[in-house]
């Protein structure tokens, strides 16, 4: 009952914050940041299900995001696909790729798993960069506006409403997955694959499924990003973007859905705040991350939750 209360409380707080933001400001810059935070948060939630709950490292998730983004861009621009169909086609392609590579990759552990996922991400980034005829190569390409069943998604307020609703739905779905038998199986796998297998859990199957789900979320958010920004470059699928996504999960808190949201907000806002340091942004950014890992090793949300819980006794 306490867990259910906490989950619903978190969702209510998230919904209130998302509803209040447009009322507090109509500034296009702040709405733009809020939209990007929501998109990053959804990707981070999917990645946290894989890393934080299932214990499987992925350093190439931006590759899946890039496939989704460029699928929407290329299929709408060169082949006349409706944006929604292009988005779903990209997600289906990512699901198939993730399914095909998941079993051999997820048999690996530790550094070997990290290197394998890193290699996959790098391959995707290279393909996107080299296929200049369709993707524009390093120069990037323009992306048409998003239309969904005749509805033109234009303007910051419309985009904000769309991604805010998606964030609430994905957060709710992720929390329910965690509390379901499938989610408990993932946590058992994280604890000990041998014990999970002895308990009758299909370890390989569970890892493949969550890998595919996480990749699909990244693909869909990549497509939305492409249509929202209106221009793509290969950096969207690059290694540094994968590290950024991973950092959102680690800083916010692994095995914490709301930690993913907090981490996405911090990592999206920090570059704006640190721009005042003129050339020292990377140094200050690194120092903040180091301090977080030293003093809040479990991540912000789990550490603060534990400290408040202790303070309440």
TrEMBL record:
It is a multi-pass membrane protein. It is found in: Cell membrane. Keywords: Cell membrane, Membrane, Transmembrane, Transmembrane helix. The keyword tRNA-binding does not apply. The chain crosses the membrane at residues 12-31, 37-55, 87-105, 112-129, 157-174, 210-229, 249-270, 282-301. It comes from the Bacteria. Pfam families: BPD_transp_2 (PF02653). Coiled coil: none annotated. This is Branched-chain amino acid ABC transporter permease. It comes from Undibacterium arcticum. The lineage of its organism: Bacteria, Pseudomonadati, Pseudomonadota, Betaproteobacteria, Burkholderiales.
């Amino acid at each position: 009952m306490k867990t259910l209360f906490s989950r619903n409380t978190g969702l209510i707080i998230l919904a209130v914050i998302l509803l209040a933001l447009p009322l507090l400001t109509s500034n296009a810059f702040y709405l733009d940041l809020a939209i990007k935070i929501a998109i990053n948060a959804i990707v981070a939630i999917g990645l946290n299900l894989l890393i934080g709950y299932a214990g499987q490292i992925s350093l190439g998730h931006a590759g899946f995001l890039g496939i989704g983004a460029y699928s929407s861009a290329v299929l709408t621009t060169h082949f006349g696909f409706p944006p929604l169909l292009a988005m779903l086609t990209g997600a289906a392609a990512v699901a198939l790729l993730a399914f095909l590579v998941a079993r051999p990759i997820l048999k690996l552990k530790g550094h070997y798993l990290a290197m394998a996922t890193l290699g996959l991400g790098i391959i995707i980034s290279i393909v996107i960069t080299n296929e200049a005829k369709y993707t524009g190569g390093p120069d990037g390409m323009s992306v048409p506006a998003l239309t969904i069943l005749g509805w033109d998604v234009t303007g910051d307020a419309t985009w904000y409403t769309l991604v805010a609703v998606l964030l609430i739905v994905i957060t709710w779905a992720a929390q329910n997955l965690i509390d379901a038998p499938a989610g408990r199986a993932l946590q058992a796998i994280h604890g000990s694959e041998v014990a999970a297998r002895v308990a009758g859990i299909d370890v390989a199957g569970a890892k493949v499924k969550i890998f595919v789900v996480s990749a699909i979320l990244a693909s869909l958010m990549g497509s939305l990003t492409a249509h929202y920004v209106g221009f793509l470059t290969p950096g969207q699928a690059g290694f540094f973007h994968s590290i950024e996504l991973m950092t959102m999960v680690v800083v916010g808190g692994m095995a914490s859905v709301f930690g993913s949201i907090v981490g996405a907000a911090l990592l999206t806002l920090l570059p704006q705040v640190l721009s005042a340091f003129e050339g020292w942004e990377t140094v200050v950014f690194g120092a903040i991350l180091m301090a977080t890992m030293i003093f809040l090793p479990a991540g912000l949300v789990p550490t603060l939750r534990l400290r408040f819980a202790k303070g309440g006794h």
